[in-house]
Design a protein that fits this description.
The protein is built from 23 helices and six strands.
Length: 605
């Protein structure tokens, strides 16, 4: 905290900035700041943090754990409040300086791309650690962490991967604007730490803008489908690594239906979506049948089927003329020209862009929000009904809400907002992904079939002894897993993400492999998959800004994601009771026994 910059009141596009540390400024390009900018509190704030850290350290000299806990809680809350105060003081000072300059006739605000930096962030993280340590001082503290191991392991893994990524930037990153300058060691350290901070700020910058959210959700949508496919198979004790092949078959099926099936949109659109699921289900179910019938390993099967699917795609799109045994056959799928792409899908089979659903004609529409609210309310209040009736009534409520919301006039959307959002290819497949998340969660945790599926995955011998047909469950699990992966094709083919509503040979089916990282990061739960998919979507979107402004390769995102998977595979380098369910249960049982013994002792005294 003493060496790192705390705030950056001004930064140029290329990354050069005016850095303010507790002991002075680091300004390699001699950038000018307004004289009215008041940031003299930075040095005083540093010494307040020093005092807080000394007090926290002395707290551990106390013998009473409850006293330690109370003091640590107080210091942690104080630290969070101090961080909030620093943020308020900084942004108020910058906004006041900008407003004063504009009022004085300046053509534009002098302070741009201003932000908090590593020093203030370290204070916030330290305060959070104090709150965590305060909880650990109380009885059952270790059991508390173990109980939430589903979040602890991925969070720790993400932190480890970020630290390694920061080390890579520290070693390989080039500090902008310092060529030929004679810098002291203190200034060089501050600039390097600022480079790390600014790099990760760029990676997470999409969450600060509406267009960034749209672009991140666009990247997130196929990751949700692929992550759910892998997670569902994992819950059944299987490893589906055939996402690319299943996406490919789903794309072929949706192309055939979307191009050649006549009829109105309310028939063609849902049937083309079902065709995508059917294509993936057939390819995944084939691997499941081979395992159930012959005991063939599903990992090997799905990998081999990926290659076959790629050849099938090439067969459909390479040429419309094929020869077999000296006979020439003509296929109607490939579009004219040299590029390997299909004919364009009929308009009835194309998924609308989200901007057209949310703001058709430039005016905000209440149709979609009311449909979501009506569907969620119906789904919640019908929780005692069977799954089929619940889904039917929920769908009816959503349609009614959509119709009613469409009749309510909405406010006009600003032209610049429409322009930014129209550039995004986020489409209706995102809503499909959200619906699938809810269905998978409900099926696995609220139905008999889902319970049997999880039982077969956790303890196959016990499940078979209880009367569950393992062969059928294997085939069913791979069918559903393949269908989930196949639905990712709707995003690419029906959503026009590849700039056209066509199937192309360049369809990015590699997202099927990315689903493994999403499933592991999300701990094979629907909510976890959604959060992990969004995190990776944000990183992918922010990687473009990182490359444009600092020249750091976007492959840094791939490195971070790969390190997350590696760290999760290693259990986040945490003790075994965070990764072994039996040891976790033992920790929680011991904590419960200690609490009961303590309660009895207190009653006796």
């Amino acid at each position: 905290m003493a060496l790192a910059p705390w705030v950056v009141p001004k930064r140029e596009f290329g990354g050069v900035g005016y850095l303010l540390t507790p002991f002075g400024a680091v300004n390699p390009q001699n950038l000018e700041l307004p004289a009215t900018l008041g940031l003299g509190w930075v040095g005083a704030a540093f010494w307040v943090w020093v005092g807080l850290m000394v007090a926290a350290s002395l707290t551990f000299l106390l013998s009473d754990p409850r006293a330690r806990s109370r003091i640590l809680y107080a210091l942690g809350v104080l630290g969070v409040g101090l961080f909030a105060l620093e943020a308020v003081l900084f942004y108020q000072a910058v906004n006041s300086a900008n407003q004063a300059a504009l009022a004085g006739g300046a053509p534009r605000a002098p302070l741009r791309r201003f932000t908090l930096s590593l020093g203030t962030y370290l204070g916030f993280f330290y305060a959070v650690i104090l709150l965590l340590l305060a909880r650990l001082q109380l009885p059952g503290g270790k059991a508390f962490l173990v109980r939430y191991r589903g979040a602890v392991v991925p969070v720790v893994s993400l932190v480890l991967s970020v630290l390694v990524g920061a080390l890579l930037i520290l070693v390989l990153g080039r500090v902008p604007g310092v060529e030929g300058l004679n810098l002291s060691l203190k200034e060089w350290i501050a600039l390097k730490l600022d480079l790390i901070t600014f790099s990760f700020q760029l990676l997470f910058s999409p969450i600060y803008t509406l267009s960034g959210w749209f672009n991140s959700l666009q990247q997130t949508t196929p990751l949700i489908f692929a992550g759910l496919a892998v997670a569902f198979a994992f819950r059944a004790g299987l490893f589906n690594i055939g996402g690319p092949g299943q996406i490919t078959l789903g794309a072929i099926f949706v192309m055939i239906v979307g191009v050649f099936m006549p009829g109105p949109g309310w028939i063609v659109l849902p049937l083309s979506i079902l065709a995508a699921a059917l294509g993936g289900a057939l390819w995944g179910g084939l691997a499941g049948w081979l395992k159930a019938r012959f005991g063939a390993n599903e990992v090997v099967n799905t990998i081999m089927l990926n290659y076959i699917a790629a050849s099938v795609l090439l067969f459909f799109l390479a040429s419309n003329q094929q020869r077999f045994f000296n006979y020439t056959f003509y296929l109607p799928f490939k579009a004219q020209g040299f590029e390997a792409k299909s004919l364009e899908l009929r308009p009835e089979a194309q998924l609308p862009l989200m901007i057209n659903l949310l703001a058709p004609g430039g005016e905000f529409s209440w149709a979609l929000p009311m449909a979501l609210v009506a569907g969620l309310v119906a789904f919640f209040f019908l929780r005692r009904a069977d799954l089929g009736r619940r889904l039917l009534l929920t769908g009816g409520a959503a349609i009614l809400g959509y119709a009613v919301g469409g009749l309510i006039p909405g406010p006009a959307v600003a032209g610049n907002v429409m322009r930014d959002l129209a550039a995004s290819k986020l489409n209706g497949s995102f809503l499909l992904a959200v619906g699938v998340l809810i269905l998978v969660h409900y099926y696995l945790l609220r139905t008999v079939g889902g319970y049997e599926m999880r039982a077969a995955g956790l303890a196959p011998k016990a499940a078979e002894y209880a009367g569950i047909n393992l062969g059928r469950k294997i085939v069913l699990a791979m069918l559903i897993s393949g269908a989930l992966a196949g639905l990712a094709a709707t995003h690419y083919v029906q959503g026009g993400v590849m700039d056209e509503y066509r199937l192309k040979q360049s369809i990015p089916v590699g997202v099927g492999f990315d689903g493994i990282a999403v499933a592991l990061m999300g701990q094979n739960t629907s909510l976890g998959v959604a959060l992990a998919g969004f995190l990776f979507g944000v990183l992918r979107t922010g990687g473009l800004d990182l490359s444009q402004q600092l020249g750091i390769s976007r492959e840094l995102v791939t490195v971070i994601i790969s390190l997350v998977v590696l760290a999760i595979a290693l259990g986040g380098l945490l003790p075994r009771y965070f990764t072994d369910p039996l040891k976790a249960a033992q920790v929680e049982t011991e904590a419960k026994d200690e609490e009961e013994a303590r309660t009895k002792t207190q009653r006796a005294s």
